[in-house]
Design a protein that fits this description.
single chain; 193 residues; Rna Polymerase Sigma Factor, Chain: A
């Protein structure tokens, strides 16, 4: 099956030609999505804003290395997710993560940004969504990342595999394990399997 054309291909070409308006359009298209991804991954809006800006800066600097094998949005998500996971590992090594989570660091996950798609976690009420999103803070980075990409961002298995740089079959098994871990944290069958 041939790859779908990248909807951002013309913008990428314009950016490579030095057209500044192209970068502004890319940021306009992806800012809320990338920031939302970062918020839900690191559970801290201020840090997420910084990581989002860093992701855009790195993408801008590396645009000549973007080869088009993945869609631009997928490539940008990979940059942002890698930055977030690196930050989480660093915070965990420093011992900062548990304090953040216990002292309200979850606030970035409990509120729903109206510019983001509604979380697709198999729950209907706002209260249940908040409970599920809060419980996600207790998941491993690996499990949280895959749930964010699939159930919140709505990426397909192929795109998730590209973002996380894993095999598509691994996406399915990790997603299954992540949902099972989340159900266990919640103490009930809140989620669709």
């Amino acid at each position: 099956m041939p790859a779908r054309p990248d909807p951002d291909a013309d913008l990428i070409d314009a950016l490579r030609r030095g057209e500044g308006d192209a970068w502004e359009e890319i940021v306009r298209r992806y800012a809320r999505k990338v920031t939302g991804l970062c918020i839900r991954t690191v559970n801290d809006r201020s840090l997420a804003d910084d990581l989002s800006q860093e992701a855009f800066l790195r993408a801008f600097r590396a645009i000549d290395r973007f080869d088009g094998r993945a869609a631009f949005g997928t490539w940008l998500y990979r940059i942002a997710m890698n930055l977030c996971l690196t930050e989480l590992r660093s915070r965990r090594r420093r011992g900062d993560l548990q304090g953040d989570l216990a002292s309200g660091g979850r606030s970035g996950m409990t509120g729903h940004d109206p510019g983001e798609p509604a979380p697709g976690l198999g729950v209907e009420s706002d209260e249940a969504k908040r409970e599920v999103l809060s419980a996600m803070a207790d998941l491993s980075d690996e499990h949280r990342a895959i749930l964010i990409l699939r159930d919140i961002r709505g990426l397909d298995y192929g795109a998730i595999a590209e973002v996380l740089e894993i095999a598509p079959g691994t996406v399915k098994s990790r997603l299954f394990r992540a949902r099972a871990a989340l159900r266990e944290i919640l103490g009930h069958d809140e989620l669709d399997a």
